[in-house]
UniProtKB/TrEMBL annotation:
It comes from the Bacteria. This is DNA-binding response regulator. The modification 4-aspartylphosphate is found at D55. Pfam families: LytTR (PF04397), Response_reg (PF00072). InterPro entries: CheY-like_superfamily, LytR-like, LytTR_DNA-bd_dom, Sig_transdc_resp-reg_receiver. It comes from Sphingobacterium griseoflavum. The keyword Transmembrane does not apply. Gene3D superfamilies: 3.40.50.2300, LytTr DNA-binding domain (2.40.50.1020).
Length: 251
């Protein structure tokens, strides 16, 4: 397991490295990086890694600045003394979020989570999946979506998703059971994944056909949608999508 540590505190970085070696002896610590600038330079020239452990607050900025410049291709485990960055961490390919001071138990749990999802991040597996999808796009479509809630990895069946929506710049899915989950994908990625049974009615909302009960016309000549699931805000169809929506609704 080729791993790098992004941490500007020497003792913390050393402790984390020793903990990883103790729990997972096959860990190959490729580098310890202590700044945004150093990490960006390393990731641009050394892409062959499997896992990143990263602090959030560094001397020259936040680690999120690193991944804005070099989009991550492997999971990131964020280790920090602050809990206010959790949502942004999971939007940045974050696999886990560990509060300092970390323990052997917390590191062991996050490595177990990594091993559980390891196949999903294997480049060879991804290449094979893309090849199969090119030949059989319908058959190879995913059947579930992985979401992370606290320390739990939860598979959500795609047929259970009623809608996707944006709230405070975060993407959530809502199931027909009325449960909401934060996802680490853009609304465009969800639209591509979910297929023709879903329609992007406006910039914030992607709805499944069977989630729509009926539509009302408003004074502004917009369609206001009534759903089979409870949702705190009214959802309307943008004017430019009116005709396309009606055609899609007919199936």
């Amino acid at each position: 397991m080729r791993t790098i540590i992004i941490e500007d505190e020497d003792l913390t970085a050393e402790d984390l490295g020793l903990t990883l070696k103790r729990i997972e002896p096959k860990t190959n610590l490729c580098a310890r990086l202590s700044s945004v600038k150093e990490a960006v330079s390393y990731l641009k020239t050394n892409p062959s890694i499997d896992l990143i452990f990263s602090d959030i607050q560094l001397g020259d900025g936040e680690s999120f600045d690193i991944f804005r410049q070099v989009p991550p291709k492997v999971p990131i485990i964020f280790c920090t003394a602050y809990n206010q960055y959790m949502l942004e961490a999971f939007q940045t390919f974050g696999l886990d979020y560990i509060l300092k001071p970390f323990s052997d138990d917390s590191i062991a749990k996050t490595l177990a989570k990594y091993r559980l999802l390891q196949q999903s991040f294997n480049p060879n597996t991804l290449e094979m999946v893309h090849s199969v999808q090119a030949k059989h796009p319908v058959e190879s479509r995913k059947k579930s979506l992985i979401v992370i809630s606290g320390d739990k990895i939860i598979p959500i069946q795609l047929h259970d998703i009623a809608m996707c929506y944006i709230e405070y710049d975060n993407i959530f899915v809502k199931t027909f059971a009325g449960k909401d989950f934060l996802v680490n994908k853009s609304l465009e990625e969800m639209e591509h994944m979910l297929g023709d049974e879903f329609f992007r009615v406006n910039r914030q909302n992607l709805l499944k056909r069977t989630a729509i009960a009926f539509a009302n016309t408003s004074l502004s000549r917009k369609l206001i949608l009534n759903l089979h699931v409870d949702h705190p805000t009214k959802i309307s169809v943008s004017k430019e999508k009116y005709q396309a929506f009606i055609q899609w609704l007919e199936g």
